[in-house]
Design goal:
single chain, 337 residues, 8-stranded antiparallel beta sheet, 6-stranded antiparallel beta sheet, 7 helices, 20 strands
């Protein structure tokens, strides 16, 4: 069959903006009943994060170009960003988490070719595909290996609403048993990292570089560059293993220290990225044992808590559970008010 991707024309200036726009950090902890994760969303602008509950049975197509179509097997709580264009983060009723983070094309990001052999999943739809259809990391990896993940442009990015941006992203998957995987598409090839170091993830360079830092026992510096943020999150979270924290609530509270260590600031500049700033718009804590998601937004001291008893998991519908209280406002702008 003949397949056609959305044509992507990206000006050099636009690519430069996207290259310096996003920086996030994750840390997943798994010890006994304590199965918790912390993730920051760092973005120079705003994403209008909306928390939604989506029930079982919703019909989904994951690409307009010969896409995989399924009826959602599992209910999920998802954080939608950029006008609902992308699911940045989510957990399903089986305790499987999926998230999307920035990994630039300079790091080698290149998705698969659109061929006739397999059906397609858009790169920006990978978290949806995983959360809707799989219960474990192993199932999700097998599912991704059975499709082609293609670089259909992501739309709805603030300031680029009329553009389709090549998806500069990679993914982390974590399940209720503590299995974890980082998935990247480098040079058109799917790469999966499932060792302990995959519990900690940030951005450029490609993930094998970060694993080399682990092997060489490199200590983090205080900058907001990706390697330092990841290593600080790793050092702080590894302390929980040293203390053998097995209680979920204690682990969640302890992960606040990981959030602080990975915090990207509001106006702090990254000297390794042309002095760009990556304000932390929100941080999320997920409890895979109790299936709870807690969201800490930059614009408020209140922490929002979401669970699967807030919507009908058996109803095939999307329910808005929480919205940004200050839409279309960057944190820097809020400080000036």
């Amino acid at each position: 069959m003949n397949k056609t991707l959305i044509a992507l024309t990206i000006a050099a200036s636009t690519f430069g903006i996207m290259q310096t726009a996003n920086a996030c950090t994750t840390a997943a902890y798994h010890n006994g009943e304590a199965q918790v994760t912390m993730r920051t969303m760092d973005w120079n602008g705003y994403d209008n994060a909306t928390v939604v509950g989506k029930g079982r049975g919703i019909n989904n197509s994951y690409s307009e170009t010969d896409g995989v179509s399924t009826k959602a097997k599992y209910a999920a709580i998802k954080i939608e960003s950029f006008g609902h264009a992308t699911v940045a983060e989510g957990i399903n009723e089986k305790g499987l988490e999926a998230r999307i983070l920035y990994l630039g094309t300079d790091a080698g990001t290149q998705f698969q070719q659109d061929t006739a052999e397999l059906a397609n999943v858009d790169a920006g739809e990978v978290p949806n595909f995983v959360l809707d259809n799989f219960a474990t990391v192993a199932e999700a990896i097998a599912g991704l290996e059975s499709v082609e993940v293609i670089p259909t442009g992501i739309t709805g990015i603030p300031g680029h609403e009329d553009e389709a941006i090549y998806p500069p992203v990679h993914f982390q998957l974590v399940d209720a048993s503590g299995e974890v995987a980082v998935v990247e598409y480098i040079g058109g090839e799917m790469k999966v990292y499932s060792e302990h170091g995959a519990s900690y993830m940030s951005n450029d360079p490609a993930f094998d570089y970060h694993l080399t830092l682990d092997k060489e026992q490199v200590e983090p510096n205080a900058t907001i560059r990706a390697a330092d943020r990841r290593l600080r999150a790793k050092v702080t979270t590894e302390d929980l293993y040293q203390r053998n924290v097995t209680n979920s609530q204690q682990a969640l509270i302890s992960m606040k220290a990981t959030q602080a260590a990975a915090f990207s600031g509001y106006n702090q500049q990254d000297p390794y990225f042309d002095n760009a700033t990556f304000p932390t718009l929100w941080a999320v804590f997920t409890d895979r044992t109790n299936k709870i998601l807690m969201l800490d937004r930059a614009h408020t001291f209140a922490t929002e808590s979401y669970s699967f008893d807030m919507f009908d998991v058996a109803a095939a519908e999307r329910v808005v559970l929480g919205e940004n209280p200050t839409p279309n406002a960057s944190f820097t702008n809020e400080l000036a008010k």
